[in-house]
Amino acid sequence: MKELKTPFSEETISQLKVGDVVSISGYIFCGRDAVLPRISKELETGTWEKRGIDLKGGVIFHTAVSPAGVGPTSSNKLEIEGSFETLSKKGGIKLHLGKGAIKPETIKMLAENNAVFAIIPPVTALLESQTLERECMAWPELGMEALYRIKVENYQAIIAAAKGESIYE
Fold first, then answer.
1. What tens digit of pLDDT does each residue of 40-69 get?
2. Which of 86, 89, 145, 160 suits 38 as a labelling partner, its CA being 20 to 30 A distant?
3. Residue ranges per structural domain of the chain
4. By the 8 A CB rule, do 118 and 22 touch?
C-alpha cells in the first residue's frame, strides 16, 4: 500500500505503476458528467482562475456528493473521459478517480501529462465513513452534481493506467 497525500508532486505520480494499491488522504475534488465539462470549458477559456480554485496536483473523483455518501460513477462516459485531457494539461489534475475501462488514447494522454487513473470499488458507505468534510465549491444549483471539495482519510484505490499501460489491456 502506497500512502498518498494531496496535493501530489510530479515525482510522486511518476513513481506510480499499474496495479499499485494506494491510500489517498487530503482534499480531493468531486465532479461528474454535469460539472466536468463546465470546468474544462472554463480552463480552456481562461476564466477558471477567477474562481480561485487551485486544481494543481489534485485528484478529481468521478462522483456526486449526496447525503448518502460518495461512490464512483463510470469514468468512460463521454462528458467525464472527455474532460481528462483538459483537467490534466490545463488544470494540473494528477489523479483521476472513478471506475471502468478508459480508452487507449486516454491512457496515452495520461502518460504524456504525468497523470494517472485509479479505480475505486463502489462502496459508498465505506467512503462516507472516510469523508471528513464537504464543501460546495461551484454550481450549487446542480445539487449533488455540483463541484465539491471533500477532505478524506485513507481512501484506497488501485492505479489503473500509468506510463502508457492499463490494467484493462
1. 999 999 999 999 999 999 999 999 887 767
2. 160
3. 2-166
4. yes
